[in-house]
Amino acid sequence: MAAASSPAAVIQVPLRWVDLDAQGHVNNAIIADYLQEARVRFLLEGENAALLGHGTLVVGHQVEYLAPVGFGNDPVEVRLWVGDVGASRFTIGYQVVQDGVVAARAHTVLCIFDFDAGRPRRMTPDERRWFADHSSPLEPMRPLGKWRPGERAYRSPLAVRWTDLDAYGHVNNVRFFDFVAEARVQMSGDADPAGNRMTAAAEAGYLWMVVRQDVDYLAQLDHRLEPYETRVAVADIGRTSMTLVAEVTDPESGGVHARARTVLVCGDRAGRPIPVPDELRHGLETWPAEAITRR
Fold it and tell me: Which of 62, 74, 79, 241 is 20 to 30 A distant from 281 in Cα terms?
């Protein structure tokens, strides 16, 4: 979580019934949506509100899921801190709280971007001063290692919808959580039909719980009729958990638009961790990831 300092803002974000997934809790991707709602409101209510209109891009997310968020009439509380402030980048830390329980903590790195020039730009002294005045140290998030999907990765076509676009005319950063989830669910279903998350509780007696998800954004994704592709591979399988890596790619150009790392825990119907079933373990070993080694 963030340091013991008071948050720069506390934002109330209303829940929606459609935020729930098949397990009856708020979907992990929607948590990123709550972070975005809080972040946008924080910026709009401050002296740097104009940055949203002229270009503020998300460079990366780190999200740790600590407890499920259930539906209710009361909004969730998003506590927000400003962390490191650089020449053109800044970091925001969050806690998502429901009924006094911290359900998630996260970091987002953002960049001030000049769309006309097609490159990041330095903050003005006044812009940087405002962020620095709200800044406090953030507790680092545990690194998940460096992996990439290899040649044997699972491949899933990705169709971008018109509604995936944001105010800048590109796919919104939050939608990448959905893209990775769709490919991940397809892969688990092909590895073991009984392991498909939609039928796990009813048929197999187990489910997958996302406990951490990081996304790095490398290039903007545009709407087009031709499909993109999400490539997923298994980086590590433990006794009760596994780490998956994914890339959102353009099969025509070979370009990579985003990379993600997801840690999942296998649980019983009550949410208690249980060993990964052998049939699913063997199936997922079909798509191994490659470690990135740099000297």
Answer: 62
Measured at the CA of 47, the angle between CA 44 and CA 53, to 5 degrees, comes to 50
Residues in a beta bridge with 155: 231
What DSSP string runs through 145-166? --EEE-TT-EEEEEPPPGGGB-
The DSSP bridge pattern shows strands 256-267 and 228-237 to be unpaired
Cut 0.90: pTM above it: yes
State the residue for tokens 């909004």. Answer: 75
User: Could you tell me how many residues make up the chain?
Assistant: 295
Based on C-alpha coordinates, what's the Rg of the chain?
Answer: 19
The DSSP H or E segment spanning 185 is helix 175-191
**Max Cα-Cα span within the chain:** 59
CA distance 1 to 185: 29
Region class of 119: left (phi > 0), else alpha (psi between -120 and 50), else beta: beta
